[in-house]
Amino acid sequence: MAPQRSVRLSLKKPTYAVCVVGVETSVDVHSDVPKGAETFGVSGSSGVEVFVVYDPARVTVPPDESRWPLAADVEVTLSVDAASKDLNDLKVKVSYFGQHEGGALGHSMLYLTGVDISLDVDTARRGKVKRSHGDKKTWRWGPEGYGAVLLVNCDRDSVTSRGPDLTDSQLTSLDDLQDMSPMVLSCDGPDRLFNSHKLVLNVPFSDSKRVGVFCARGGNSLEDYKQVLGPQRLSYDVERQRGERKINFFVEGLAFPDADFLGLVSLSVSLVDKGTLPEVPLFTDTVAFRVAPWIMTPNTQPPLELYACSVVDSHGPNTKFLEDMSDLALKANCKLVICPQVENRNDRWIQDEMEFGYTEAPHKAFPVVFDSPRNRGLKHFPYKRILGPDFGYVTREILFAGASSLDSFGNLDVSPPVTVGGKEYPLGRILIGSSFPKSGGRRMTKVVRDFLQAQQVQAPVELYSDWLSVGHVDEFLSFVPTSDQKGFRLLLASPSACLKLFQEKKDEGYGEAAQFDGLRHKVNRSINEMLADRRLRSDSLYVQKCIDWNREVLKRELGLSERDIVDIPQLFSLKGSYAEAFFPDMVNMVVLGKYLGIPKPFGPIINGQCCLEEKVRSLLEPLGLHCIFIDDYLFYHELLGEIHCGTNVRRRPFSFKWWHMVP
């Protein structure tokens, strides 16, 4: 609200003023008074409320409250309760009196025009705009919070648009209005008032490149909507029509929160007197929005779509793998989307290319794909094939440098909801792989880290993944859903667990059982040989130390205990100073509800069963999970990736509303 205005009265001529409904106006009764006047009386016509404000410690209230002392401690304010029907149809009379009984020494007349001006948005976050008399200028988090939410208009509702809708300054589809937040301007008052006054809608310069406003004129054609505020327009003189009491606007977000943008934007409307130079705002009403964040979904959310790529290499097409993915998707009751070779250009690492998330406001939510800066064969797929109606797109590019392996989104994960030391993270916490602290190694690019941090609702945790050749967190961890109170388990690759299992099998007399048994392209290694291989053992123990360091970080940052963690047997070997999985990396799985698509490890066969598969089943199936082992050796493992790297999953959004949390 604007600061309280003051109207100065005159004994010689009437004073005229505009008064906004619900806004108090101060009346200056001291500046022009008759000589000898010591008291005054004030009265108003119907529709005007008059208040005498005084300090009870200094002012004695007159017996009939009709004559107040002309003291500095006595002030007059007034307000109107409805818009006027005509100009100057409300009046206030101030009479001045001397010390002795008798008639008034003089009178001042104030004629008022009441006008109802209010800018309103969905402050209560219920999906509808309602008139608000509370605080509209601030935004509060939490279940008792308030403040409107703005979606970034990053989908493409019209097939004629070349990019996301936010790039269009003209409406290209009426469906696009559903992605915007409604805003209503109340402007009731005499039509003649708006001959001498105007309404001006404003956006601060700092917010102008992050918000766009369209004015609606009630029709059903695209021409009935025009952009009135945005990056090129900081103000708009509202075109109020005769008799018009409400004007509808639609507001779109143009940018997600980031390092240079906290996510808050404001819009204001001012009632301006055109008869003064410079033009003077008589009243300003301001509303605040927070731009909805981009939100990731963890493995514990139900799957909706499974993505995989069709590729051909020296081993032929990956038809069998895609058939296995189809069977898995059928079991999990989710749709399989195959990216054809002509679109992926033989780039199979679809997890590295993009991450699915969503954005949500009280009136609408839609999925948003985050395109990584890796820009290899799949670089055009998210923009050309996923961006569409009610499917948004966002990316961050690395300027002046190329992407490293750690910039791929196999190095980006998110935990299920957790509570850490009493602090709730109802949407989980983002996990990214990085270098060892202060080591100067590889890190995910700052533009992506800044973007993830700026969303505020899934506070990121940096892990140590630079010890791996590829360097992705999905090479040593995964989350799976469970039906118990905890709701999930963290799976960690464990060389120690693998060496322990192999030692147990050797002690049971199965030392000659061989790893890679059944693989034509790999030399078998018996349990005895692997246990005797000092380098393999040394490499795996080094890797175990790296994973143990992450284990403690994860326990601390996610509030986990040892019973929340399952160790999955896995060996690693070093190539130079970086580690690679010695056999298919089983934690690098795709999780579709209770169905797990796990890389087939080709472990030693004992009593007709792979002992590695048998061990993993014994760990996970009691939790209600179904382990489905899939051969990814030639098409993925040999290229330093596994099933999770070669697939991607769009999941159901959280039912929890992000604005109910307190970051």
From TrEMBL:
EC code(s) of this entry: 3.5.3.15
Cellular component, GO, one term: nucleus
Job description of the protein: Catalyzes the deimination of arginine residues of proteins.
Entry keyword Calcium: yes
Signal peptide range: none
Active site as annotated: 352, 472, 474, 645
Cited Gene3D superfamilies: L-arginine/glycine Amidinotransferase, Chain A (3.75.10.10), Protein-arginine deiminase, central domain (2.60.40.1700), Protein-arginine deiminase, N-terminal domain (2.60.40.1860)
CDD domains: PAD_N (cd04214)
Principal place of residence: cytoplasm
GO molecular function: calcium ion binding; protein-arginine deiminase activity
Organism the protein comes from: Vulpes vulpes (Red fox)
Name this polypeptide is given: Protein-arginine deiminase
Protein-arginine deiminase (PAD) N-terminal domain span: 1-113
